[in-house]
Every structure is written in structure tokens, then in C-alpha cells.
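Deviations from the work plan: none for this task. Representative record:
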Amino acid sequence: MNRRVGKTVSWQRHWLGMLLVAVVLVAVPFVAALGGQAWVRIANFAILYIFLALGLNIVVGYAGLLDLGYVAFYAVGAYTYALLASPHFGIHLPFWVILPFGAALACFFGVILGAPTLKLRGDYLAIVTLGFGEIIRIFMNNLNAPINITNGAQGITLIDPIRIGDFSFAQTSTVFGVSISGPHKYYFLLVTLAILVIFINIRLQDSRIGRAWQAIREDEVAAKACGINTRNIKLLAFAMGASFGGIAGGVFSAMQGFVSPESFSLMESITILAMVVLGGMGHIPGVILGAILLTALPEALRYGIDPLQRMVFGHPVVDPESMRMLVFGLALVLVMRFRPAGLWPSSQRRRELSEGTH
Amino acid sequence: MDTLLQQLINGITLGAVYALVALGYTMVYGIIGLINFAHGEVVMIGTMVAFTVIVSLAGSGMPLLIVLGIGLVVSVIVCMVLGWALERVAYRPLRHAPRLTPLITAIGMSIVLQNVAMIIWGRNYITFPPMIEKIIYDIGGASFTNVQVAIVSLAAVMMVGLIYLVHRTKIGMAMRATAQNPHVASLMGVDINRVIAMAFVIGSALGAVAGCMVGSYYEIAHYQMGFMLGLKAFTAAVLGGIGNLAGAMAGGILLGVIEALGAGYIGDLTGDFLGSHYQDIFAFIVLIVVLMFRPSGLFGERTGDRA
């Protein structure tokens, strides 16, 4: 009897919590818009990075495979969208055709990268994935001659926005009497996608596959001895992480309307990895926190450092752009120095660390 | 024939530089199993410091060789201090942290160093003043300069010196012991912290020398130059089997030669479909192919499957 009452209460609290989260999620873009449309875009990027970081979390956090070339899959998705929905080749396919196709293509590349590198461990794997990322970027940068495929360093412009019938995500339109601008629409699209990826991550975590990944992460030989097909399971981690990267790339392309190889540098891979590690590897709320912080921090610094310098010295002493990156780098060092397991590690990981086994 | 010889000469010069930088990565990795991502930035700082010293002393009327020598020594000292400080600030406190944590601090330090360099030396390319009069030697249709000779011979001297240090001195023995098993080494009276700091200091000194070489070879420097150089050198270290000194040297030279040959012949091989701007991908393609067949590099020990 008592137990049943307790259960109802906890369910009510559960739904209340969900409702609260939903209200906050709906409110965010309108609050951000008070600070200018730029902040809505920053919020969009934060969610895009949550998506990417959770994709990488599958590879690095769950399966323990250090991937330094994750951005390659992001690039594949972005360029697939850009080539199939822009005046560059004159092809204009709808997004619901391209996004799955981009994800499939990224997945294919994930398997191509994964298959020959399965034997490698730890840092050898890291450098090969890094090399793979660079190879993809160099090709995107140079495939403009003799046949112009990627338009080289100039990138591809005038990419179609996502459009459902007459409802385009690029223009402002009025829904139920409320005027909603382009970035706002992308915000809601991204939130939907992010909820989907969070849901998939949660469901994967304790599933048969998720537990197999964790077993491989902790001890590959033992996992193999327990009857896990380590080859297929590792490939699956690569493929799944890559497809998320591909989808994120497609949305990025549509949202920006422009892609160039510059967006897919090694630094980008490293930033996404930093989000995963800084937040708390393998722990979904931690990774989300890491992604939001590392997107918001550089932007906040962009708006904060210049006025601060003027206030203290009366005039800008140091180039604000380098000052911003300097603070960013220092923040990475300090956070890891004082919270080695990340800002919000899972309770299991925290326990392991305090016991001294890792 | 002369293209082949010419590209071989260029490749060996470049490879000597890669090898020196790769030694810095491999020493640190061999001892504490950490990829010191900030090493490329240390090399860049070495180039920049040498540049500043040489330019400011150029008008003083001192003989050229002494000016260059002072530049080299100052840059080596600055980098040694930097390497020591890096280990102290970013890596030592995290020695027992999860494996990826020091990787992130390394990346953080690398961003910090790059931006400090940008604040000090500006965001534009710095050109070295042409101080050394170039003498060009001809050999069988190919040519090389006295700068290249100096680079290769200095690199050879440094490598022999390092091998002597590691295999014939007491600190070298301590390093090898720590690399094999830190716990046992510390029981035998080896001061682990000192050995690790030494690995960083020596690696940074080699990096500074390599940085000066790059500066004098290309006569150009930039605050982002450490990144690609570090990446290639790290690739070289992995190619040779990371943690293995001879492997890093061989990997460096091999990578330099492959890159030069690749850049020289890619147009012919692909019927001008791919040009020499694909130079940078050779390093990575070779790496992937080698690791497919030898997962621990060319000279790396086979670690086997153990937990």
C-alpha cells in the first residue's frame, strides 16, 4: 500500500521534472533572442555540439576507442548535403532524402576507417584516426581540379535550407500568431534531434551492445573470452558514432548555407573530444554539460574580454581573439587539473577513481 | 634520375628535422605513456626565440657563426625551461588521472603556447634575414646547399649524443629503468620525478634545435607552424614504433623521404590528376598502411594481448 503511494509520487515528480525541462527548452531561444539573434545561433551551435559530442561519446566514452578524427564524418555529412542541395551541381534534393543518405555515407566511412584499424590499440588508433581526418580535409581542400567537386578552399555556398513543403527554415514565418525567425526554427529542429540522440544514448548505455562496449573498454581480452564478438562490436561503435556525425554535418550545412574545409580542421575534432572528456566521459549529462560549456565559453569570452580590457587598461592591450583562445586553453588545463574525471563524471567512474583503479 | 636524387636529398634534410622532433615525443611516451601534444609548440617557440636573438644581434658586428651559435643556445635553454615547466604544471599533477585527462591538458597547453606566441610575435609570417651565404653543391644533376649539410650533420651529432646519453650514462640507465617499470625503478633508488622531468627537458632541447633548423631551412616562421610539424613528427614516431629511440630516427628519415618522393612523383603517377598539394597526405597514408601490417610500428615491440 505504502509502496504504491511512493511510486505515484515519484512518477508525478518525474513528469513534473520533464515538464520543467520542456518549458526551459522552449523558453531558451526567446530568452537568448533578448541578447540578439547571435545568441540564438550560439544556442543552436551548442545543441549541434551536444549532438556531435554524444555521437563521439559512443566511440570514446562507451567503447573506449580514442578517435581524433571524428570531424571527418561531420565533414562527410556536411559535404553530402552541400553537394546534393545547392546550385554547385544544380541538384536540389529534399533534406529527408539527403540526411539519411549522408548518415549512411558517413557510416560507410566509419566502417572503412574502422576495419583496418581494429587491431590497433590506444594511441596508435588515435594517430590513425587523426590521419584519416586530415586526409579527408586535404581532399576537400583540393578536389577542385581537374574536376571541380568540392570547390576547394572557397567551399560551397548558397546551400538550400531545410524545407518542408512551403515551410522553409530560413525565413521568418508566423505560427499561431507568433512570429518565429529562421534560427528559432532550427533551434526546435535541433532540440528534437538532440532529444532523439540522448534517448538513443540512454537506451544504448545498458543494452546488450552498450554493456559489450563497456566490457571492451575495460578489458578487451576478457570481453573476447566472454564470447563478445569484439570485431563487430567495435565496428558498430565506429559506424554508429560516424552516422551521428553525418547527420550533424547535414544539419550544419543547411543551417549555415555554406561549408568550407576550414570548418573541419583537427582543432574541431579536438574540441569535440574535449567536450566529452571535460564533461565526464561516458556519462550523458556530463557530456551535455561539456558541450554547452565549451560552446558558450569562447562566445562569452568574445563578448566579455574586450570591454574588460577597456575597463582595466583603458584600451585593448592584447588582441582579443588570441586572448580568448588563451583563456580557453587555460580553462581546459585548470578544469582537468582539479577535476581529472571531468566536471560531472558518472558515480561509477568517480568510485573507481577514488579506489585508485582505472 | 636527377629528380629522384634531388628529392632524396630534400627528403633526408626534412627527415632529419622530423626525427629530432619525433625523439621528443617518443622519449616522453616511452617513459610515461603520454602524447605530449604541446611538443610541436615547443619547437615553434624555439624557432621564434632563435629568430629574435639572431635578428637583434645581427647588427652588433659579432662574427656570423657566433651570432647563430648564441641564437641556438638561447633557444635551447628557453625550450628546456619551457619543457620543464610544462611537465610541472600540466602533467605531473595528473600522473594518476585517467588516461585521456593529460591529453586534454596537453591540448590546452598547446592552445595557450600558440596564442602566447601570437601575442609576442604577431599573427603574420616572420621571414628570417638571409644571413648565411648559400653555397650550392652539384652532384649528378641534383644540388644541395651548405645549410642542408649543416642540418643533417647537426642532427646526426644530436642523435649520437642522445644514444650515448641513454645507453652509457647513469641518468640514461635510470630512464631505461623507468620506462620498463616505474615502480621497480623507484624501489631501486631512481628518482622518477627527476627522470620524467629530464625526458621533457632533453626532448625540448632537441625540439629547439629542430626548430632552428626549420627556421634556417625555410627562412620563414609562423605561430602555427608547430602544429603540422608536430603532427608529422608524431606520425614519424608512431611509424617507427613509439617509445623506441632508433624507431623515431628511422621513422623521421623515412617519412621525410617518402614525403619528398611522393611530392615529386605524384603528378607523374596519377597522370597529373593529383598535384603536389597532396604532399601532406602521404605521411598519413603510409602510416595507416604500415600500422595495418605492423600494429606497433616498424620497430616497436609487440606488446601482445595483455590487460
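The longest helix of chain B spans residues 2-32.
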